[in-house]
Amino acid sequence: MHIVLIEPEIPQNTGNIARTCALTRSSLHLVKPLGFSVEDRYLKRAGLDYWDKVEVKIWDDFAQLLNAYPQQRKFFATTHTSQYYYQVKFQPDDMLVFGPESRGLSAELLDVYADYLVRIPMLDIGRSLNLSNAVAIVVFEALRQLNFPELK
Predict the structure, then answer these.
(1) Neighbours of 43 (CB within 10 A)
(2) pLDDT at residue 40, rounded to an integer
(3) DSSP letter at 120?
(4) What are the structural domains of the chain?
């Protein structure tokens, strides 16, 4: 699986997501601008000693990533859809795309990829789940559907 974070803002979330990626053999893609330095101590601390076990790619913008992975299906996590993440039949090389913590994915991306939006069910009493929790929920459902390949 590929986890894509567009303009992540909180280093601790990205560190936690890197740890999830390492333990699930998922690639982590970070799309600039980043809200922190990749040398940030909170980022490194949250990722613990897993950084050397995860493939991390940093992209200047989303278009650059799209050009590098034109064939992969991409699913965009948002609260602005009625399709739930567990209704999708995931494939091994799918990309799971998440937006910035403070504002989510842009309206432009939501319009372009309207057929590929997924949501996590939750009460409408706040913005949404923490980004690292949302990533874990969706990636583990995708891996469950695939019978947890290579995981024990």
Answers:
(1) 22
(2) 62
(3) -
(4) 2-145 (3.40.1280.10)
